[in-house]
From TrEMBL:
PANTHER family xref list: 64 KDA MITOCHONDRIAL NADH DEHYDROGENASE (EUROFUNG), APOPTOSIS-INDUCING FACTOR 1
InterPro entries the record matches: FAD/NAD-bd_sf, FAD/NAD-binding_dom, NADH-Q_oxidoreductase
Cofactor: FAD
Record's protein name: NADH dehydrogenase
UniProt keyword annotations, A-Z: FAD, Flavoprotein, Oxidoreductase
Protein's organism: Metabacillus niabensis
Pfam families in UniProt: Pyr_redox_2
Domain FAD/NAD(P)-binding: from-to ranges: 3-283
Keyword match Transmembrane: no
Entry similarity comment: Belongs to the NADH dehydrogenase family.
């Protein structure tokens, strides 16, 4: 029996499971899923969990069930590409015939002293739970810093404003405008929303150091009761430690079939893969679709696809609390209630109709 090992039940791993199960897995193949948690976590909604506007249960989705799907819940400590083994923290060694690496990302601290030690995170569900406890236990009128005004920082700041209207929230951004990768119309709309709702934006920020409850912007200290870091991501450390070629962001360079060069049985999906788009759940799922095609050809001893058409991503949707939002759909800017409703609809479809 061949063993397909999937590291991480994130968006890419889940899409692969749903495409192979229940009826498209060859009789001589079994799947071993390895994840820290016994459920898939909706990472796109972590900001709301941290802000306290949704419950923990709201962002859990059960893994599929199948007689030849075996789940192992634990932490990966190493991948041995030459030996075709995965090592777990509890000492277990799991051999594989084919491997899907979908271990996700971690915060990137840009070598800023104290950033890792003295800030909170929303990169994992465990970190979100800790951040939720911190933010919602703050005294009335407390000061909160959110470092990084990309999509995660903007959504967290807006959701926290609705959750705790008493808090003084300051959003630090290194650019002239927040959401600099979006059209100026969207950036202006979001900045106006923050102004109207009492969230302070610090543009052209340069965080030089972080201490306990202190952010240094251009070396000037500013005191806060809590600091949350949303200023960049990098691949999981297990992937960063792999002795393979990577791009400038530390993501693994891949063949046209999404495998690691010289290791045609090891595929990388999602945030750890070097792809021509910014990491996203949508991109991970699109890549997973192509990996499934490669696996099915491989298992049938058929020639592998030489290449795939470019990914067609539908766009990006962001929320400003529960009633307003923004987004780019088919390169068309959207603001107001429509993008917020669209995002809620996408989430509902994923939770209840995925697979």
């Amino acid at each position: 029996m061949k063993n397909l090992v999937i590291l991480g039940g994130g968006y890419g791993g889940m899409r692969i499971l749903h495409r192979l199960l229940p009826n498209h897995l060859p009789d001589d193949v079994q799947i071993t899923l390895i994840d820290k948690n016994p459920y898939h976590c909706l990472k796109t909604e972590y900001y709301a969990l941290a802000a306290g506007t949704i419950s923990d249960q709201h962002i859990r989705v059960s893994f599929p069930e199948h007689p030849r799907l075996h789940s192992t819940f634990g932490e990966v400590t190493a991948i041995q590409l030459d030996e075709k083994n995965v090592l777990l923290k509890n000492g277990t060694t799991i051999p594989y015939d084919d491997l899907i690496i979908g271990l996700g990302c971690e915060d990137k601290y840009h070598n800023i002293p104290g950033a890792k030690e003295f800030t909170h995170s929303i990169q994992s569900i465990d970190q979100c739970r800790e951040t939720y406890q911190t933010l919602n236990n703050l005294k009335a009128g407390a000061k909160v810093a959110i470092v990084g005004a990309g999509l995660s920082g903007v959504e967290l700041a807006s959701e926290l404003r609705e959750s705790r209207k008493d808090l003084h929230i300051k959003l630090f951004d290194r650019g002239k405008h927040i959401l600099s990768s979006f059209p100026e119309r969207l950036s202006n709309y979001v900045e106006k929303w923050f102004t109207e709702h009492g969230v302070d934006i610090v543009n052209n920020a340069t965080i030089t150091k972080v201490e306990q409850n202190i952010v240094y912007n251009h070396d000037e200290p500013i005191e806060f009761d809590a600091i949350v870091w949303t200023a960049g991501i990098q691949p999981n450390k297990i992937v960063r430690d792999l002795p393979v070629e990577k791009d400038k962001q530390g993501r693994v360079l891949l063949t046209n079939q999404h495998s690691i060069p010289n290791y045609e049985d090891a595929f990388v999906v999602g945030d750890c893969a070097s792809l021509p788009h910014a990491p996203s759940a949508q991109l991970a799922e699109a890549q997973a679709e192509q990996i499934v095609q490669v696996l099915q050809k491989k298992w049938n001893n058929e020639p592998l696809p030489e290449s795939f058409p470019p990914f067609k991503l539908k766009g990006v949707l962001g929320s400003l609390g529960k009633k307003q939002g923004f987004g780019l759909v088919n390169d068309r800017p959207l603001i107001g209630r429509v993008p917020r409703l669209l995002k809620s609809g996408v989430l509902w479809m994923y939770k209840y109709h995925n697979g």
